[in-house]
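Usage

Read records sequentially. Each one opens with the input sequence:
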Amino acid sequence: MSRQDMEKRKKDLIAAMSEERGYMPPPWAYMAEKDFDFIEAYNNLYTRALADGKTLPVKTRELIAIGILAYRGLTDGVYEHAKRALRHGATKQELMEAIETTIVPGGAPTFSAGLRALMRIEEDEKKAKT
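and closes with the structure output:
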């Protein structure tokens, strides 16, 4: 494959990843430059895991991801996946209930990570209105 073709593939993949997620983590763009085949395989896995499944729609899969990310204390991840869940039809009430669900198995730190992400979304919405 020519260098020009590879550059186009990289550019197209980065654009597709950014469009699907609503953002592009800088480390993923870096990885696309360093090991394109790996990031392409990762993106295929991501897409398969978080796209509509046979019975679970994207928003449900995202709510599950939110709980796991909150458990891991990854507030930025919760924030990004919550925004994606909203774009795929989840309501803020569904986000809240998913976050509430984390308190028993994950404890207060998990619950707090989820709430911080939800608060950030609401702050973003207020800023957008002004």
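Summary fields computed downstream for this record:
- The CA atoms of residues 10 and 64 lie 30 Å apart.
- Residues 54-130 form a domain with the AhpD-like fold (CATH 1.20.1290.10).
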